[in-house]
Amino acid sequence: MKKSDFQLYISGAAKLGVSFGVVSLLSRWVTGNTILSSPETLITYGLIGGIGYSFMGALSIILFGFLAKIIRKQFSEQQTIGDILREKLSPSGYWFMLTIIFITSFHSLFVQAVGAATLIHLIFPIPTFVGMMVFLGFCYIIGGIGGIDRLHQLAGINVTLIFAAVIVIPVYFFIQEGIYPVFDGIKLYHPYLLYIKNQEAILFIFTALLVFVGQVLLDRATWQRIFMIQKEKVRMTFTLTGVVWATIPLALSSLLMIVLFGRGFDNIYSLFFELVDKIQSTVLIILFVLFCFSAISSAISAELHATTSLFIKNAMDLFRPLSNNEKWKYTYWFAGTVCVILLFISSLLAPSPLKLLFFIGNIYAAIISPMLYIIFSKCKLPFIVPFSSFIGAVSGYVFMPITEDLKAIWISFAISSFICLSTLVFHIISKHIRNKL
Amino acid sequence: MLSVEAFSLTIMIASLAPLLGAFTLLFLFLFEKRIDLLEKQKREIALERELQTALYNQLNQEIQPHFFFNTLNSILSLARLDRKTELIRAIETLSKLLKFKYQTNTSFITIDEELTYVKYYLEIQKIRFRDRLYYECSIDPTINQAVTIPFLLQTFVENAFKHSFEKFIGEAFLKITIKKQDQEVYITVWNNTTESRDDQSHERGLGLENITKRLELLFPTGNTSVQLINTDGGTSVTAVFPFVLKTEI
């Protein structure tokens, strides 16, 4: 394969082993979301919520590993989630699913970008716009132009920085401060964090599992990695990724304790970045800033790369078959346009509260059953299967004013599952009748 | 409410957990290649052992004197009838057959190579059986370079002759089908003789068992199976194993 071949941009030259597979998946899954949603989880649902959050994230990645093995066994020539959807869905169903994937992709990219903008606003004495331009320029070069090989070259450095920060900073602080002052400070200012018998936390933990599973199932970067990892190592890679990933939000919860003790807070989403004010040592400040940027930039680059690959291979190429050079050209244009849009939106939004950006759990919950049906089915599926995710998500939003947010997510899941199940039963019965005739 | 001890324990676990993650990753980076190599070596040794067993079975079962004498007698008849071109072809084919049989000592070969060997064998059998024998072979051209274990197809075909055509009179019809389906290779050998289950000799059982074992060793993570099916129309044996090109190994 020539170095300029577009296939190399999508999948790279060599198949990944467990170690590189785990690093690649970690650099995708330790994201701005992990950093931004940890404080919210911790403050809303206490320590139990924080711990449950990390376990559920890990569990969903591990569970996806079981599916990934089946997917890899069924399809070996494919490269993206779009390739599989095209085989399993009718044209209308395919385009519908692709639209949902693009909506969730852009949403996820925006969350990361706004996170990065908030960080720049808090740390650097430069206009956010300029900081974001440099940051997104870097992501564009790595994810947009560089392709998967460039992403993997940086993934090792990213993961090293992430682990260095989450190991060194909490240990340094707790040795310096001691556990008692932190405990007393939390007890005084945020006693709800220490409350264990929290019924709502249990509902939250299981809802988080639902949302996580949906998110992983729909994540085009994760799907691409299924086909990059050596076939016999797929499940092991996902299991280990889940286990290793779980340790990071756990460490982030302990980091947040350092920020929170002995003080209140204004903006929950920028809370984590305020750790910079608490850190005295310059080396640790640099390490912390590098950790944040590294986590966010690797996730943005990975998502940018996956979204671009999906757009060029599974959307543009279907309208008009593209030559290799055209694919490269449109890749640069598409990734560049996404970066420019991200730049403007993140500069306008940051550092205002991001509540609205976390408002997509219903879609993820509603997509689980259709995606499972798609993966396990042996034949082409009717439009109603992918469309059930839309019905489920909309129903969840409709019920939101009369019920809690978390319950609305379960309603979304239940409705789309019911539709998929009905379709399956109808399909089985009609097949049975046809066979009898 | 969490006590200070429980809080300390939680913070300790939360702070030290990433160490566990980092060590796991470090261990993988340091030892993954070595573990892979050990596994590969173990599999190769087992494959080698099974191949030796297969070769032993081949020598014991298949180059039986009666096959050899019958072939030589057929060649002799060709010489007596002065059918020189066919005679040369027969001797050449026998020579190639024996050469392949004694020189194959690798754990895997391509389907193309295996098929060439089987065709030599069938050519010789055609001299013996003459118009009684009809055979056809259909292969999906995309899987010519796929990997298989040596003597898989050969064992199936030889079994058909040994347990069917040589035992029963009448037309001998043999069909070889090699196709790819869902990233798996299906090799089927069908013959028109119906055997009762009692007739499945111990010898044949050993041959198929050896093939099953060797397929499992060559494709440890893939789906493999060997099935013998008696139907009204005939007997067929099918081997299923993953589609892997020689260049990928």
UniProtKB/TrEMBL annotation, chain A:
Q: Which reaction does it catalyse?
A: L-proline(in) + Na(+)(in) = L-proline(out) + Na(+)(out)
- The principal location of this protein is membrane
> Can you say where in the cell this protein is located?
Cell membrane
**InterPro entries given for it?**
Na/Glc_symporter_sf, Na/solute_symporter, Sodium:Solute_Symporter
> Superkingdom, according to UniProt?
Bacteria
Transmembrane region positions?
Answer: 12-30, 42-71, 92-113, 119-142, 154-175, 201-218, 238-262, 282-312, 332-350, 356-376, 383-402, 408-429
**Mode of membrane association:** Multi-pass membrane protein
Q: Which Gene3D superfamilies match?
A: Sodium/glucose cotransporter (1.20.1730.10)
Its family remark reads: Belongs to the sodium:solute symporter (SSF) (TC 2.A.21) family.
- Which protein, by its recorded name, is this? Sodium:solute symporter
Supply the source organism for this entry: Neobacillus kokaensis
From TrEMBL, chain B:
Q: Which residues form the Signal transduction histidine kinase internal region domain?
A: 56-133
Q: Which SUPFAM superfamilies does the protein's record reference?
A: ATPase domain of HSP90 chaperone/DNA topoisomerase II/histidine kinase
Name of this protein: Sensor histidine kinase
Fetch the InterPro entries from UniProt: Bact_2-comp_sensor_kinase, HATPase_C_sf, Sig_transdc_His_kin_internal
For this UniProt record, the keywords arranged alphabetically read as follows:
Kinase, Membrane, Transferase, Transmembrane, Transmembrane helix
Q: Name one GO molecular function term.
A: kinase activity
Organism of origin is: Neobacillus kokaensis
Spans traversing the lipid bilayer: 6-31
